[in-house]
Amino acid sequence: MPKFKKPRVTVDAVMVDCGRVLLIKRANAPFKGRWALPGGFVENGETVETACVREAKEETGLEVAIIRLVGVYSDPKRDPRGHTVGIVFLCRPVGGALRADDDAKEAAWFAMKGLPGLSFDHGKIIDDVKRLLAGR
User: Fold this and answer.
1) pTM for the whole thing?
2) What is the pLDDT along the chain (136 residues), one digit of tens a residue?
3) What angle do CA 117, 120, 124 make, to 5 degrees?
């Protein structure tokens, strides 16, 4: 896989409902066949908010509204393809119908306790969301 010469910007949408989180099963490398948060690369000329809404729709079929910023994740080792800076938003579904599409092989809701092994640093992100929702 090619290495990036400069960090690339990514976004992820964390959708939580009744103690469950929406995950997608990746259809492509890296981490093909593993679960992840819906997200992807920001396109040239696109805001991170627009990219988050677009990626959520492309991968899950759901239209989302952004509630708030969860955080920025910049560990140079978070993506095996090269250095990425991930901007993560807490979102809520506002329309559409759940279906896997684009880079997602499957899309499903999981209880936040006992999640499957996750791609990238998405386990850490979900831990941060749990703390955020608990008010810590």
Assistant:
1) 0.94
2) 566 689 999 999 999 999 999 999 999 999 999 999 999 999 999 999 999 999 999 999 999 999 999 999 999 999 999 999 999 999 999 999 999 988 899 999 999 988 999 999 999 999 999 999 999 7
3) 75
Q: Look at the chain and report how many structural domains it folds into.
A: 1
14 φ, ψ to 5°? -100, 115
The CATH number of residue 113's host domain is 3.90.79.10
| Spatial separation of the C-alpha atoms in residues 131 and 125, rounded to whole Å | 10
Domain encompassing residue 107: 8-133
Quick one: which of 21, 13, 34, 15 has its CA closest to 111? 21
Instruction: Verify whether residue 43 is a known catalytic residue.
Output: no
* Cβ neighbours of residue 12 closer than 8 Å, sequence gap 6 or more: 37, 38, 39, 52, 55, 86, 87, 88, 89, 122, 125
